[in-house]
Amino acid sequence: MSTKIITWQVIQGSDLLFVNWGSEVIVYNSLSGETHQMDVFSATVLEQLMSNNYIEEALLRDICRLYSLDNNSENQQLIALIINNFDQLGLIEPCY
Amino acid sequence: MKLRQLGSGNLVKQAASKEGVCLDIGAFCVRVKSNEIVFLETLAFLYQDFPILPSDTFADFHIVIKRPKGVRRYLKPQVIFVTDGQQPFEPFPLSHAFPLFEWGLNWCIARRSHQYLMLHAAVVEKNGKALILPALPGSGKSTLSAALAMNGWRFLSDEFTMIRPQDGKILPIPRPTPLKNASIQVIKDTFLNAEMGPLFPKTRKGTVAHLRPPKQSVEQLKEAVLPELLIFPKFQANTEIQLNLLNKPYVVFKLASNAFNYELMGRTGFELVKNMTSSCRCYNLTYSRFDQVLPLLDDLLMQNV
Question: Which structural domain range is residue A33 located in?
Fold first, then answer.
C-alpha cells in the first residue's frame, strides 16, 4: 500500500493580506472574509505556498534552507502540523 | 432650523403630515412621522438642538411611531415602530414609545449602513482626537461616555462608531444616551447640569432614561474626526483603576468581533480595522470611580505617545 503524495496550493482565487506585528502576523483571506493570527514561522510557510505549489517534502526542504534549519523529523512534523492547520482553516487545498 | 425652534404646535402638525419631520442626526437623515403627543414631546426635548431639514431632503430612514389597529389602540394602548412599511418588532406599551423609537433607529442603522464600518462602541473627542470605547452591553460604556461628555469631551455616539472608508474618519451621531438603572442616578448625582428625559421603568433593559447630548456636540455633528485611542472599558465596582496596554493582533480580533459588519465589508473592513489598530494606542481599562478614570483618560490623550 502506498501513501498518496499531495501537492498543496493556496486556495484558488484567494487574496491573502499579511500584517506583521513583531512576533505575530495577521492574515486576512479575502475569499472567505476570515482573519487569522499566526506566528512568523507559519506565515513564512504560507508565503512560500503562495509562491509555489509544494509537496510536503519539498516545502520542508525549502523552509529549512530559508531558515538554516536541520531537515530532521522534528521539523518535518512541524511542517506537517502547519499544513494540516492551513488545510483546516481553508487557506490551502490539494492541487490536482 | 433647530427642532426647538419649530415649536411644539408646529412639530405636532408636521410630524402628523405626509412628509413628517426630517431630523439631521449627523451621519444620517431620519424622517419621523407620528401623532403621539407624549412621544413627540420627549423627542422635542432630547433632540432640541438637532437641525431639521427641508421635507424634500433624502432621508436614510423613514420611521413611523403609531398605535396598532384594533382594541390595543385604546385598551392598555400600545405603540408600534414601522420603517419602510415593515414592522420589525412586537408592539411596546404606549408609554415606551420613545425607547422603541431609539432602539428601532439603532436597528435600522445596524442593518442598513454598510457604507461605513460600524463598531459597537461609544466615541468621544478632545483636541481633534477621538477616543473609541468598544464594549459589550453592561460594561459601562454608556455611563463612561456620558461622564466624558459631561466633562469637556465632545460626544459623538454612545452606540455606534461609524468609520468612513475613504479617510478612516469617524462620523458623529450624537443622539441621546440611554442610561440604565443605577447609572441614571450616578450621572444625575455627579453632573448636576445633566439633562435627562423621562424615566421609562420596566423596559427589557430595566429602567431607562435618556441623557440629552451637550449642545456643543450637536452643533459639531458634521465634523468627522480621526481615532487616537482605543480603550475597552469595564466597570467593576470597588476595584482600583487598571490600564493595560494591548497587543495589536489581539485588538484586530477584538474589533473584528465587535463590529456589526466587519465580514460584510470584506477587504475594506479589514483595511479599516488594521489601519485603526496600527495608528491608535490600545488598552483594556477596568474602573470603578469617575474621579480616577476621567483624569486618567485626559492624561492619556495628552501623552500622545
Answer: 13-90
Please answer whether residues B63 and B104 qualify as being in contact, where contact means their C-beta atoms are separated by less than 8 angstroms.
yes
Overall pTM surpassing 0.80 (yes/no):
yes
If one counts the domains in chain B, the total is 2
E strands, B168-294, where?
170-171, 177-180, 200-203, 206-211, 226-235, 242-245, 281-287
**What average pLDDT is seen over chain B?**
95
ipTM, two decimals, is 0.86
- Say how many domains are in chain A: 1
pLDDT at B72: 75
Of A15, A21, A33, the CB nearest to B249: A21
Other CB atoms within a 10 A radius of the CB of residue B204 amount to: 9
Q: How far is B150 from chain A (nearest CA, A)?
A: 37
Range of the domain at B22: 3-112
B interface test, pick of A28, A32, A40 with most B CB neighbours within 10 Å: A28
Of A17, A24, A30, the CB nearest to B249: A24
**Could you report the per-residue pLDDT of B103-118, keeping only the tens digit for each?**
999 999 999 999 999 9
Q: What are the Cα distances from residue B194, in Å, to B4, B161, B283?
A: 18, 23, 28
User: Do residue B128 and residue B107 come from a single domain?
Assistant: no
The three-class DSSP label of residue B304 is: coil
**Which among B76, B92, B112 is the end of a domain?**
B112
Query: How close, in Å, is residue B255 to chain A by CA atoms?
Result: 11
B75 has pLDDT over 90:
no
B148 and B98 in one domain?
Answer: no
Mean pLDDT of B236-243: 94
Does residue B240 sit in the same domain as residue B122? yes
B188-229 tens-digit pLDDT: 999 999 999 999 999 988 999 999 999 999 999 999 999 999
**Together in a domain, B59 and B155:** no
Q: In which region does residue B258 sit, left (phi positive, over 0), alpha (psi from -120 to 50) or beta (all else)?
A: alpha
- The closest CB to that of B274, out of A19, A24, A30, belongs to A19
A17 — contact with chain B (CB < 8 Å)?
yes
The band of B305, judged by pLDDT with boundaries at 50, 70 and 90, is: very low
